[in-house]
Amino acid sequence: MLAMNYRGPYRVRADHKPYPEILHPEDAIVRVTRSCICGSDLHLYHGLVPDTRVGMTFGHEFIGIVEEIGPSVQNLKVGDHVIVPFNVACGKCVFCEQQMYGNCHESNSQATAVGGIFGYSHTAGGYDGGQAEYVRVPYADVGPTVIPAEMHPDDAVLLTDVVPTGYQAAEMGGIKPGDTVVVFGAGPVGIMAAKCAWLFGAGRVIVIDHIEYRLEFVKNYAQCEAYNFRSLEDPVLFIKKTTDWIGADVCIDAVGCEAAGSALQTITGVKLMLQAGAATALHWAINSVKKGGIVSIVGVYGPTGNLIPIGNVVNKGITIRANQASVKRLLPRLIEHIKEGRLDPKAIITHRVPLEEVGDAYHIFSAKLDNCIKTILIPPSAGI
């Protein structure tokens, strides 16, 4: 089969790999109909995630048609077109029982933090991902959800990660009616977090980034304010000024480990890797939120420490909430939001690229070329 093949930092290509096999009675084999390149994939592409091995196939955002099922699978049948959450979750461990599917203890039992994730290095379980024609899906009775007949496949594929992560970012913020919400990052997740903030009753939504075309996009898509931090003397000072020197009620870090804006953070966190990424956006979030406010983190950081102002967290009485999105828990309400027209995920898709051209697709997304917001990869065997 054709699949994306990681050959080292900044080197990916479409290659032929063995067809996946049923390895456990609870497995399914899914023929991919849509997959995405995620901003988190760029951290792998740039060589910033530990134990990303040559030969791995990335891709934790995909949908597809069930081709085979193991003998213990009861909830799926061959021919079902399914949303596959990026979380690989057993559904039975102590964390899955709490609906913390991103922290499943069985799917990544060697880790003390994150659960299994498709296509996201051996630190997240070593599972090959969906930037391929076919994927082995473990625990097939747990994660995969049949796509409603009336739902467009482009909406469905964004329910695997982008929409749930943006929604959970807003949810973790504990947004109350009238709150001022600041989202750092105007990538796909930041765009969706800004959009979803209104669903929780936000009175004002502000997005901070430095890529002009993304700022223009989020301003139109999420009906929010959008500012380029390079045009501001200091983004923290700006947010304080625009909130009567109180600070935002909620700040969301939707950037993670490759944030721009601080030479010190970039050198120590990205160039020299002395900390787990550049925590610039997290700094700004902590210092911009009001006393007693909430900082919600969905941006990806590595497993080691970061240079952050923990004293300000303590002295301001800030609540920090963070996690990988629990996709399975959120799917029913997000499907309903799409059905009712409150969310239109497919509108953020700007590029549709054949899987055969995956190398070019990564370059375009990574280099922010051609006003790229979100890229969909179409395998040659997709069929739809």
UniProtKB/TrEMBL annotation:
The record's section on InterPro entries has:
ADH-like_C, ADH-like_N, ADH_Zn_CS, GroES-like_sf, NAD(P)-bd_dom_sf
Q: Which residues form a coiled coil?
A: none
Q: Which residues form the Alcohol dehydrogenase-like N-terminal domain?
A: 25-143
User: Domain Alcohol dehydrogenase-like C-terminal spans what residues?
Assistant: 188-323
List residues traversing the bilayer. none
Q: Name one GO molecular function term.
A: oxidoreductase activity
Cofactors per UniProt? Answer: Zn(2+)
Q: Would you say which domain of life the source belongs to? A: Bacteria
Provide this UniProt record's keywords sorted from A to Z: Metal-binding, Oxidoreductase, Zinc
Q: Does the keyword Metal-binding apply?
A: yes
Family, similarity comment: Belongs to the zinc-containing alcohol dehydrogenase family.
Protein name per Swiss-Prot or TrEMBL: Glutathione-dependent formaldehyde dehydrogenase
Per the UniProt record, the source organism is: Dyadobacter sediminis
